């Protein structure tokens, strides 16, 4: 059974997770059931560029007595670097957000077609792989394509697909054309949400560039840094907490859960926010 430390108080909080409405393995209701079984009491569903799973997750949260935070993880661009911004406590019916996410879906489809065309040129069955991605649930991501490449026997593991073909600088990589960071933060705020910078340690940026990113994120209206993230590794929490305090950000915690098969990154584990940072959930969650 999963070991579950508590998060600064009694509640177990996980503000970053994916369902099969994007590149997660579980349906939204299965995800909520899995979180409840792991002792998570507050869960944000934050699918990539879609809010399609929130309604079912919300219903399921009612059944399991878990607080569901309506969220989304939006891909943005900052100086040609892809940056992920979490929108927490968003109104999924916000017209601006809905129209923006519709455009994101089209960008994702177009990018997927280009990547598959490159694979075809490299001698792989790009057309078949595109059809497999389009037949799978969820807004298309490179994860879907990597899984289709595993299923087709073209690579052994999803990670190999990224290392050989899909990762930055690899033979089938296509640079994304995500909207600018400040626009993305604006849409989250227009939807009544709080913007948190996801897994800040995962971007390949110099210390100076990271400082500039945080300054720009704050100027755009960003509220929090994801100080503790399954996608960061625990060793970054203290330094990210110090950065958050220095830049005046609140702190968030999230597993970035994608699949129960990734057993080293379960829902709700090791999400202790350092005491020096104000929790982003203050004012939203009664505890
Ligand atoms: P996209 O948003 O289409 O660029 O796809 C990015 C998604 O691919 C991320 O959300 C991760 O879930 C996944 N991903 C990125 N790099 C890797 C990797 N090396 N191995 C497995 N999955 C990855
Ligand atoms: Mn993902
Ligand atoms: Mn991310
Ligand atoms: Mn994520």
Question: Are there runs of 5+ residues with pLDDT below 50, and where?
Answer: 1-8
Q: Specify the CATH homologous superfamily of the largest domain.
A: Metal-dependent hydrolases
Just give the CATH class of the largest domain.
Alpha Beta
Radius of gyration: 18 Å
Major β-sheet, in short? 7 strands, mixed
Q: What's the SSE pattern?
A: EHEHEEHHHHHEHEHE
Q: What strand line-up does the widest sheet have?
A: 1-2-3-4-5-6-7
Give your account of this protein's structure.
The chain is α/β, with parallel strands linked by helices and 287 residues long. The chain folds into two domains: 197 residues, Metal-dependent hydrolases (TIM Barrel), CATH 3.20.20; 62 residues, DNA polymerase, domain 1 (Orthogonal Bundle). The chain is built from nine helices and seven strands; from the N terminus they run βαβαββαααααβαβαβ. A seven-stranded mixed β-sheet has the order 1-2-3-4-5-6-7. Helix 3 runs antiparallel to helix 4. The protein is globular. It binds adenosine monophosphate (AMP) and manganese (II) ion (3 copies). The site of one manganese (II) ion (MN) has 4 residues, from loops. Adenosine monophosphate binds next to helix 5 and helix 6.
């Amino acid at each position: 059974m999963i070991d579950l430390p508590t998060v600064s108080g009694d509640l177990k909080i996980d503000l970053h997770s994916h369902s099969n409405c994007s590149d997660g393995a579980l349906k939204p209701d299965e995800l909520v059931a899995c979180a409840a079984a792991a002792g998570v009491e507050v869960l944000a569903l934050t699918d990539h560029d879609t809010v399609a799973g929130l309604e079912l997750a919300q219903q399921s949260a009612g059944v399991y007595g878990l607080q569901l935070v309506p969220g989304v993880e939006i891909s943005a661009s900052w100086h040609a670097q892809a940056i992920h911004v979490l929108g927490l406590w968003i109104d999924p019916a916000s017209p601006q957000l809905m129209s923006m996410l519709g455009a994101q879906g089209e960008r994702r489809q177009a990018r997927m077609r280009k990547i598959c065309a490159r694979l075809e040129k490299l001698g792989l069955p790009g057309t078949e792989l595109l059809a497999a991605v389009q037949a799978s649930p969820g807004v298309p991501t490179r994860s879907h394509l990597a899984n289709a490449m595993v299923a087709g026997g073209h690579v052994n593991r999803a990670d190999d697909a990224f290392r050989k073909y899909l990762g930055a600088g690899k033979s089938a990589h296509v640079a994304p054309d995500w909207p600018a960071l400040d626009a993305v933060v604006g849409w989250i705020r227009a939807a009544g949400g709080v913007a948190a910078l996801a897994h800040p340690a995962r971007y390949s940026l110099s210390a100076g560039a990271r400082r500039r990113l945080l300054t720009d994120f704050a100027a755009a209206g960003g509220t929090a840094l994801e100080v503790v993230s399954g996608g960061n590794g625990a060793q970054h929490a203290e330094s990210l907490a110090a950065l958050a305090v220095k830049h005046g950000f609140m702190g968030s915690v999230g597993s970035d859960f994608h699949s129960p098969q990734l057993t080293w990154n379960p829902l709700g584990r090791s999400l202790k926010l350092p005491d020096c940072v104000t929790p982003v959930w203050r004012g939203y969650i009664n505890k």
